[in-house]
């Protein structure tokens, strides 16, 4: 019971055992052939039947074209890849708060872009030290690429 599988019937137990046994024999036969660039091993899918594995390999088949109707209603909780309900937002935010750390970062980027534009055209009203990047501390002078 390494992968916590609980069979409901003995027939399902037998089916899983047969599937596991087939997988194990396939792996052993592969090892006997030798000289492979890969190795096979057992995992939590080792007792799956060929039908179950083919569904897993095939993936989800999406319809072609535009999807005009879904069964999702506004306010429904979305599920994650493993079927559990997602926590947090289920819709896009309607506004953004530029407080905390993000605000100053956005402001600095906007200021650097504006100064770069002003330096490119070098207007006369701009004080002489601001017409070059020399007023910036040495580590920040590399920001002139903007």
TrEMBL record:
<keyword id="KW-0472">Membrane</keyword>
<protein>
    <recommendedName>
        <fullName>Cathepsin propeptide inhibitor domain-containing protein</fullName>
    </recommendedName>
</protein>
<keyword id="KW-0812">Transmembrane</keyword>
<keyword id="KW-1133">Transmembrane helix</keyword>
<dbReference type="Pfam" id="PF08246">
    <property type="entry name" value="Inhibitor_I29"/>
</dbReference>
<feature type="transmembrane region" description="Helical">
    <location>
        <begin position="96"/>
        <end position="118"/>
    </location>
</feature>
<feature type="domain" description="Cathepsin propeptide inhibitor">
    <location>
        <begin position="1"/>
        <end position="53"/>
    </location>
</feature>
<dbReference type="InterPro" id="IPR013201">
    <property type="entry name" value="Prot_inhib_I29"/>
</dbReference>
């Amino acid at each position: 019971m390494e992968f916590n599988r609980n069979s409901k019937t003995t027939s399902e137990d037998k089916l899983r055992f047969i599937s596991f046994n087939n997988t194990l024999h396939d792996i052993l036969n592969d090892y006997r052939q030798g000289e492979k660039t890969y190795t096979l091993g057992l995992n939590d899918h080792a007792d799956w039947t060929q039908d179950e594995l083919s569904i897993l390999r095939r993936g989800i088949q999406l319809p072609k074209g535009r999807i005009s109707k879904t069964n999702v209603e506004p306010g429904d909780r979305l599920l994650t890849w493993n079927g559990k309900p997602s926590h947090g937002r289920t819709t896009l935010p309607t506004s953004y708060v530029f407080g905390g750390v993000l605000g100053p970062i956005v402001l600095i980027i906007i200021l650097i872009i504006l100064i770069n534009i002003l330096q490119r055209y070098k207007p006369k009203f701009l004080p002489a030290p601001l017409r070059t990047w020399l007023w910036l501390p040495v580590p920040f002078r590399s920001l002139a690429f903007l």
